[in-house]
Amino acid sequence: MTDYAFDPGVRSELLESRDPAELAASARDMADFISGHAAAIREYERRIEELEGELEKSRTTAAETKSQLAAVLQLVDVLKPSAP
């Protein structure tokens, strides 16, 4: 793939030195490149959403476990034999 300069003079020089078929091929290459990156970004975003969902489930499970553990500890305190 071609590395494009940002200097307008260099860019116009590149455009003048190429035929339309080469420019069209370069445009297609650039479009394919952008499309590939867009697909990768969508996949990363999907994976991030998936991981955020898993994290939320884990946090919910941890909170429920903590609550259950607190209840068990209270029960142990109630059932603990008193010291003579």
Brief characterization of the structure:
By secondary structure, this protein is an all-alpha fold. 82% of the residues lie in helices and 0% in strands. It has one domain (8-79).
Protein described:
With 84 residues, the chain is mostly helical. The protein has one domain. 82% of the residues lie in helices and 0% in strands. The chain contains 2 helices and no strands.
Key phrases:
single chain; 84 residues; mainly alpha; 2 helices; 82% helix; rod-shaped
Overall, the morphology is rod-shaped
Average pLDDT for all residues: 85
Summing up helix and strand content along with how strands pair, one would put the structural category as mainly alpha
Roughly what fraction of the amino acids lie in strands?
A: under 5%
Number of spatially distinct domains: 1
Total helical segments: 2
Distance between the termini: 85 Å
* Residue runs with pLDDT of under 50 for 5 or more positions: none
Provide the gyration radius in Å: 31 Å
**Main sheet characteristics:** none
Q: What string gives the helices and strands in order?
A: HH
The tally of beta strands, per DSSP, is 0
Q: Share of helix among residues?
A: over 70%
Task: Please write out the topology.
Blueprint: H1 8-16, H2 20-79
